[in-house]
Amino acid sequence: MIKLDENDDFWKHFFKNPKKAYNPYMYRLKEFPEYIMYDNEIMDSYKGRWNEYFKNDNPIYVEIGSGSGNFALGMCEKYRDRNHIALELRFKRLHSSARKSKKLNLSNVLFIRRFGEELTEFLGECEISGLYINFPDPWEGNEKNRIIQENLFSSLDKVLKIGGKLFFKTDHDKYYEDVLQLSGNLENYKLVYHTSDLHNSEKAEDNVLTEFEQLFLNKFQKNINYIEIEKIK
Ligand SMILES: C[S@@+](CC[C@H](N)C(=O)[O-])C[C@H]1O[C@@H](n2cnc3c(N)ncnc32)[C@H](O)[C@@H]1O
User: Fold this and answer.
1) Cβ of 101 below 6 Å from ligand 1
2) Closest to 54 in 3D by CA, of 35, 39, 73
3) Which residue lies with its CA nearest to atom 24 of ligand 1?
4) Please, what are the domains in the chain?
5) For the segment 104-143, what is each residue's pLDDT rounded down to a tens digit?
6) Nearest-10 Cα torsion for 91, 93, 99, 103
7) In this structure, are residues 72 and 63 in contact, taking their beta carbons and an 8 Å threshold?
């Protein structure tokens, strides 16, 4: 841990009050300015004009909870004509994602330190073409804290294009069932695909693995659930 330097107010990007010591990876986010953004004001200034940031007109996809970035990098290598904004909270995971992006010399990915609940603060109207949420915390016993709930769709009402999709993968069977049920109650959205066994489905070939997914496959041989929900109006 790095000790607090009284003259350094970098922590203010992340915390309300100062701490005695900080995770060194917090400071190390500065090592990759081309791949990591942590200043909310700068993010918000790109609201409605992320294409200017990427310097192209390609569609923008967002990912919430990108972990150490394997899915984001896999998607960016596979779909060079898309831009990918990945939200993650953990400093070390952001740092690792950026380090790998630099190694691959990617120009269509950006990692931001931002809560998934804040999409409407930095994304403009109908600005994104899709949202990926892979293996989010199921919040067992505290389900009201889940990222996928009605509030998320209220945000997507604003920021997702019509015809755009939410893509959701989880190992958690109950979360999968709950999202299936929720999708039936949403006026502006349609469930277009679901399977409780992604790796033995027609979508398997196109699937890009996340770190958690790789772990579940290798260690536990757990079935992976997958859902696509499309915005129809
Ligand atoms: C279980 S991990 C899955 C990581 C990755 N998607 C994967 O499949 O390997 C969930 C990730 O979401 C991040 N996270 C949790 N809550 C979040 C939130 N509200 N906004 C953005 N990221 C969040 C965590 O820091 C963690 O890295």
Assistant:
1) no
2) 35
3) 65
4) 31-231 (3.40.50.150)
5) 999 999 999 999 999 999 999 999 999 999 999 999 999 9
6) -160
7) yes
